Amino acid sequence: MRKLVLLAIVGLLAQLVDGSLGMAYGVTTTTLLLAIGTNPVAASATVHLAEIGTTLVSGASHWRFGNVDWPVVLKIGVPGALGSFAGATFLASLDTSTAKPLMSGILLALGLYVLVRFTFKGLRKDRLGTPLRKRFLTPLGLFGGFVDATGGGGWGPVGTPAILASGRLEPRKVIGSIDTSEFLVSVAASIGFLAALGSQGINFSWVAMLFVGGAIAAPIAAWIVRTIPPRILGSLVGGVIVLTNARTIIGKDGLALDGGATWLVYALVWVVWVGAVLYSLRAHRAEVAAESAGSAEPERELVGDPA
User: Are 250 and 257 in contact (CB under 8 A)?
Assistant: First the structure.
């Protein structure tokens, strides 16, 4: 019973982060399942089955708060489903360990770009509203879906930074669209796992508890995305991407740094990340104050300046 409660809590916290920042549900929950001895295939299958429910609730919540761009959902979600089905089907015979550090390096670079871009320049507006084309979203969806199924998570870490870096969609809609399209990815991956393995190794009570926790958190996360200013949200997302992928690069699959060096890198990332968020918050307040002053100036001209 204690394990089931723990799974529900993990599902809640993971969905709260995923729904707010566009990533981390699969990575977080898969890591827990592997830590308690679940084999990788069963762990990924369990997480994706739970995500069918959590992404459905999350997508509906994001839609309710106006965080979804439906053309983007379809353009990236359909190829994402094809990629995740292929990844689930071939997971047992695939070895992605050598590709993992390379992928993390690419995502780390994207994360750094997002972090720096949003921290120092805010939301790029010269491309905002420009349509995202299929020739960009289709390969992104195929790759993200494949990585998600084979690694137990990765749809958000692949899709969110790539679309954010394009500057064509505001952060809340990037997160809402990625979370909503993940429903298609989760369904396709689950079908692939069940077709290849049946229900072998899948504990459906674990699936249920992960879903319960995630379903509770989904509406809260969608509201958070709606509330946080784009500049601050971009800095938060960029930091999560950097922290997540730095862990892979310095870990046993990458540079294999010793304990002291590892903690030094983590401390540096956290200091930079917190500093970036605080800088974004200060810059946002300055922008709001400048806009308020600018809007007040015409009013003074209309009524006449008593001075």
Answer: yes
